[in-house]
Amino acid sequence: MDDASIGSFLELLRFPSISTQPEHRGDVGACAQWVQARFQTMGLEAELCPTPGHPVVLARNAHRPGRRTVLIYGHYDVQPADPIEMWEHPPFEPRIRDGVVTARGATDNKGQFFAHMLGIEAALREKGELPINLIFLVEGEEEVGSPSLVPFLEANRERLLCDVIAISDTGMVARGHPTFSYGLRGLTALEVRVTGPATDLHSGIYGGAVANPAAVLARLLASLHDADYRVTVPGFYERVRPIEGWERETWAALPMNEAAIRELTGVPQLDGEAGYNALERIWARPTAEINGMGSGYQGPGSKTVLPAHAFAKLTFRLVPDQDPIEVQDKVIAHLRAKCPPSVRLEIERGHSGAPYLVDPREGFGSAAARALKKTFGGREPALVREGGSVPIVADFKRILGVDTLLLGLALPDCRIHAPNENFPLENLEYGMRLNMVLLEEIAAA
Ligand code: BES
Ligand code: MN
User: Fold this and answer.
1) pLDDT tens string 318-364
2) Roughly how many angstroms between the first and final C-alpha of the chain, as a whole number?
3) How many angstroms separate the alpha carbon of residue 111 from the centre of ligand 2?
């Protein structure tokens, strides 16, 4: 990888493009402008498309009839950097050590989509043109559920029509091991707020006669699982597709075992739904997760208070063929039924994304598999599903009618969404080559 490309990558990583935090709105916009300018430097036509949220950057080459049209998607927004004190250096001041770049967004998703930009830049430089008609779409709201991109796709459907979509925003099973993901979990988010007394109370004067919102919330949250770690919401598993035999066999042969997952996460023991192994639980079973909760006194020492409120932020990871809104409705009904009349329960619906699953042998799947194999020195790609979500993939299918090739470059220890997120320059190089080979393979398929 040449110094100029690395230098550009570091520039991209310096934007604190945190989409969820209003104080970073300007940084998100500046990052979008940088991406647009970079596309223009490469010789593509590039637009900055405003939305009610953060802008979409849309770039294309000169389209010619008779060629395949490929849409490449990425996102320039990132997750918040906190807990900031756990970083070895400031998250938006990238460092390179032993060929690995550390910064928020290095893997998710700046390194991965920038690798595609470098591939296109190299092809244009070497050959003067691309083998396909290109649409490159980079959005700024993936980490908040892409609220503006769905209406954008609907409004711009005609000029986004394509034969296939390619995205690098998923994982690799190991370093140097090409990985083709044929499924993503979906999700649906909820925020729960329990309110008891009008203000915080002295827990001695009132405790025992007034329900404690923190205790009520704890019971409600605990009621989401049984002792086998199965989700207890009535009807939750109704539409869940069983794991196929070939999937169990393929996954069992992967170089990702339970010991490795334990090591990566630092837990004393893995845990989850009875009857499934760790990869099955992560890739093909739905879950209920508490992402945040709060109530009462959080400072040093003790304070004898009966808190007025308690809240929790929840997400449910979903698998085919669960429907996010249907699950949301069922969860709300379950929580309402379990909540005692001694508190008020408010539930706010959050963002949702549908799960995704394709047959990896269909459509352009074999072109993608060939491209991965060629890029990674003849190594056969691993066929996996993902536990994570890229909600727009199901919307692409629904609105544009095409499948997505998920060719991820995130390593198991890349620490996305966590402190010290990192991306090896090796993967920037792999991604650049993958882009070039993939576009050739799609053109020839
Ligand atoms: N790139 C991730 C999703 C991912 C990571 C898929 C690793 C597979 C392997 C993506 O940016 C992400 O984090 N998405 C969010 C979506 C949500 C905020 C709507 C997620 O999965 O939590
Ligand atoms: Mn991502």
Assistant:
1) 999 999 999 999 999 999 999 999 999 999 999 999 999 999 999 99
2) 29
3) 10
Rounded to whole angstroms, the Cα distance separating 117 from 72 reads 10
Which helix (H) or strand (E) segment holds residue 434: the answer is helix 425-444
3-184+355-444 belongs to CATH 3.40.630.10: yes
- Where in the chain are the domains? 3-184+355-444, 187-240+286-353
Alpha-carbon 9 to chain mean position: 21
Q: Please state, in angstroms and rounded to a whole number, the distance separating the CA atoms of residues 31 and 14.
A: 9
Task: Give CA–CA dist 258/248, Å, rounded.
Answer: 15
C-alpha torsion 335→339→341→343, nearest 10 = -90
pTM of the model: 0.94
* Tokens at 402, concatenated: 């095409």
CATH no. of 187-240+286-353: 3.30.70.360
Three-state DSSP class for residue 266: coil
Q: How far apart are CA 236 and CA 234, in angstroms?
A: 6
Structure tokens at 137: 């779409």
| 389 Cβ inside 6 Å of ligand 1 | yes
The span from the CA of 101 to the CA of 2, in Å, is: 15
Identify residue 264 by its one-letter amino acid code: L
Helix (H, G, I), strand (E, B) or coil at 302: coil
User: From the CB of 411, is ligand 1 less than 6 Å away?
Assistant: no
For residue 389, give the ligand 1 atom closest to its CA.
21
Q: Tell me: the pLDDT tens digits for 217-261?
A: 999 999 999 999 999 999 999 999 999 999 999 999 998 889 999
Check pocket membership of 178 for ligand 1, CB cut-off 6 A.
no
